[in-house]
Amino acid sequence: MLQTVEKTQMMGTQAPQTEAAARLHLLVVDSDPAIRSACAEIGTSLGYAVQTIAETAQARSLLRGHAADIVLINLPARKNDGLELISELKLLYPETSIIAMTASGSVNAAVEAMRCGAGDYLTKPFAIDELSSVLERASEHHTVDRVSRQIREQLRLSQGLGSMIGRSAEMEKLYRILSKVAQSTHPVLILGESGTGKELVARTIHAYGASSQKPFLPVDCGSIVPTLIESELFGYVKGAFTGANRSKDGLLVSAEGGTVFLDEIGELSLDLQAKLLRALQEKEIRPVGSTQRIPIKARIVAATNRDLVEMVEKGTFRKDLFYRLNVVNLRLPALRERREDIPLLAAHFLDRMTRESGRKFTLADEALQTMMRYDWPGNVRELENSIERACALSSGPVLHLGDLPTQLQQKGIDAWREANAAPHDDGAIAQAEKVTPLVDLEKKAILEAIRKLNGDKLLAAKLLGIGKTTLYRKLKEYGIACPLGEE
Ligand SMILES: Nc1ncnc2c1ncn2[C@@H]1O[C@H](COP(=O)(O)OP(=O)(O)OP(=O)(O)O)[C@@H](O)[C@H]1O
Ligand SMILES: [Mg+2]
Question: 20 to 30 A Cα–Cα from 195, which one of 124, 263, 367, 382?
Fold first, then answer.
């Protein structure tokens, strides 16, 4: 079967489409020899290593064991083996980017192909630049997918991503988005309560990005006065204000393609919001006191624990700036939403304290149990501080509930009280209601016996083990003088 594979040579007449394309393996599956040779020629000239093949069955055996990076599959009008191949490839080689070729007008075929796992489609007949742009998109996706897969693999082998700890479903979801986001240069908005790790996430995005060698420059928009933020971000020229003895580049310029982290963006004044928006839109800035504009390349990552949507509604945050920053948003879960990560985080901080102090620390059972129950309004930062404090206070290697901050101790005491309180809970009351009083049981037994014995009260009394008089007295008490209407 392999003899039918037509291998084309790298012609190298043109520069590769992208650097990555030079290393990518493209397989073309089409029964039409004219299409095969056209795709081969164009693919090769764009820098791909191209193989072409006529039948899907041959493609299967060719791909066995060594996957192509991009597969261009023709979908003939009345056969669905192309769709089957797409589904199979997606299952066996999820990293392969698949492009379906369909006849013009067959929108359904394209939709079906995408549903089976094709990432894109190309309608026949196509122009060279259509083929070339579909290939370019596929190779970009392929590279992004491969890197984010590598990041996820790394995650699977560790307790988190980079220096981020956590294996909960919420964190894994966050890592998945983060591994993709890191490879783009779009602005990112990180939302989350105080202490959830917004700055750590911003640093992780930078560390996993293509410009990780470039600077990561944080600016705290909440703690610096507005005029200072402006000169920090945009820079100033000599003499711009009293004390400006020399010109200084702003962070947006000195990041040189790295990341500027705008922390507490919700605190930025409306005037500065307008200036930042202009900088982001025009990709250039004007230093304070200057008329000259300077281009900027920095990536913007912003964070806040404020509700920006509400601020936009109230008019305290610009809507247009919100949309510009919110291209991708990452919402960090509160620690109480991922309690299963508490032991991992605690172990991580204990290890760090052990390394720093040279003393070995562990947590007593009841201390960890209380930590699992507590709501952590200050999130990971509060957990970190609690452990640091406990290590500093503890005289021995085991940290007890008593070494933890008072709010945790209180939580532990409350839980203990609850567990040791008298059992008069609602559950017991509900069970009590189900218990039948003896008198009712007795009434039931007497009436049942008389009914079963067709009204023979004498025999009923005998079998119930009571005298006839007792039986009559009881029937009278129940208000049934003559059961079954006998007497
Ligand atoms: N997933 C995590 N794994 C390990 N450490 C974490 C994690 N999340 C947060 N931390 C640690 O908790 C502390 C607080 O994190 P960070 O400063 O990033 O939070 P924040 O959301 O920016 O908080 P704030 O809103 O108070 O500024 C830091 O010391 C950080 O290293
Ligand atoms: Mg912060």
Answer: 367
In angstroms, the CA 131 to CA 42 distance is: 8
Residues 368-411 pLDDT 10s: 999 999 999 999 999 999 999 999 988 888 998 889 999 999 99
Q: How many Cβ atoms are within 10 Å of 250's Cβ, its own excluded?
A: 25
Provide DSSP, 144-168. HHHHHHHHHHHHHHSSEETTEE--S
pTM over 0.90: no
Coil, strand, or helix at residue 183? Answer: coil
Rounded distance between C-alpha atoms, residue 95 and residue 149, angstroms:
9
Give dist(CA 72, CA 184) in Å, integer.
26
CB 301 within 8 A of CB 260: yes
Per-residue pLDDT of 81-119, as tens digits, reads: 788 888 888 888 888 899 999 886 777 888 888 988 899
Amino acid at 41: E
Of the candidates 80, 299, 88, the residue with the CA atom closest to the CA atom of residue 211: 299
Distance CA 312, CA 320 (A): 9
- The domains found in the chain, sorted by start residue, are 2-147 (3.40.50.2300), 161-333 (3.40.50.300), 336-420 (1.10.8.60), 438-485 (1.10.10.60)
Distance of alpha carbon 216 from alpha carbon 212, whole angstroms: 8
Q: Give the distance (Å) from ligand 1 centre to CA of residue 113.
A: 43
Q: What is the DSSP letter of 228?
A: H
Q: How far is the CA of 261 from the centre of ligand 2 (A)?
A: 10
Q: Are 277 and 320 in contact (CB under 8 A)?
A: yes
What are the pocket residues of ligand 1 if the criterion is a CB atom closer than 6 Å to any ligand atom? 160, 164-166, 192, 194-200, 305, 380-381, 384
Among 199, 219, 336, the mutation site with the greatest number of ligand 1 atoms within 8 A of its Cβ is 199
